[in-house]
């Protein structure tokens, strides 16, 4: 018997509207909001990501573990790593670790516009 049912992941950020738009451009789906401090992205497949205004938000320092470490990160499968990289960078992502060792490692790490780490992973 389960205790709970998964609902969403919420990301703290300084501008929830802008971050929701970034992820909508990456994943597709529909952005909805009830107020200026909380936006939801209803992504294809029934997944939901929420974006919550956090005044004074400080992005995590990837890949630190000793202080101001990442609390979570998102992974996204992509069919074409190079094309996906070009697109997320054009949307405002920042590269954090692009060394996939010539394709040996099947992911690359970026930060979204609010500084949260995410990975593009070979499908």
What would you note in describing this structure?
This protein has 123 residues and is of the alpha/beta class. 19% of the residues lie in helices and 36% in strands. The protein is built from 2 helices and 8 strands. The strands form 2 sheets. It has a 4-stranded mixed beta sheet, with helices on one face. It has a 4-stranded mixed beta sheet with strand order 5-8-7-6, covered by helices on one side. A hairpin with a 3-residue loop joins strand 3 (38-43) and strand 4 (47-53). It is globular and about 45 Å long. The N and C termini lie far apart (32 Å). The relative contact order is 0.20. The model has no long low-confidence stretch (mean pLDDT 90).
Notable features of this structure?
single chain, 123 residues, alpha/beta, four-stranded mixed beta sheet, 8 strands, 19% helix
Strand content: 35-45%
Using DSSP, what is the number of strands?
8
Class inferred from helices and paired strands: alpha/beta
Provide the spatial order of strands within the biggest beta sheet.
Answer: 1-4-3-2
Mean pLDDT, to the nearest integer, reads 90
Detail the topology: elements first, then pairings.
Layout: E1 9-13, H1 16-27, E2 30-35, E3 38-43, E4 47-53, E5 74-78, H2 81-91, E6 94-97, E7 107-111, E8 117-122
Parallel strand pairs: 1-4, 5-8
Antiparallel strand pairs: 2-3, 3-4, 6-7, 7-8
In short:
By secondary structure, the chain is α/β, with parallel strands linked by helices.
